[in-house]
Amino acid sequence: MIKNPSFESESPSPWVTSGDGITILTDPEIARSGQRSAAISFFEVTNSKQRPEVSQPIKGIENDRNYQLELYFTILQGAPSINNVCELKIQLYGGSTFAAVIIQEGVYTPETYYELEFPFGGSQGSSTDLEVIVSCQKDPPQELKVAVDDFRIVEQPLEDNGK
What we know:
0% of the residues lie in helices and 49% in strands. It has strands spanning 16-18, 22-26, 39-45, 53-59, 66-77, 86-92, 96-103, 114-121, 127-136, 144-156. A hairpin with a 3-residue loop joins β6 (86-92) and β7 (96-103). The chain is globular, with a radius of gyration of 16 Å. InterPro entries: Galactose-bd-like_sf.
């Protein structure tokens, strides 16, 4: 369902980038996976007004089915203190926040990829936009760089709820 999930093609298409601070990198040292120089989405947040985003339309989601979105992220540089909340947000279905990860100092080991898994139901129709956003409540003390890679949506078995 997700096209170019590891940003491997020469063009980021069908991913769309918006806002200041988005770069698609070609660097196998930073990429989580890939047989060649993989490109990944790279968020650079330097102030609280920024809302860098990468998104793409997702088709093939069926009503009354369960799915799981899986992706990996890493902090490449910086992490805000406990007094400043920065988030990696995942949005579906017209911008409602589907999941968020708080990025704070001491929580994640830099340059280590972490897997995120978010279950969701196909209750909104057969298509939606997948949006990935990094935002901070206050200006971070240093540039925050977050990378994402290896997206996928997996259909999950329906639970019979005892029937």
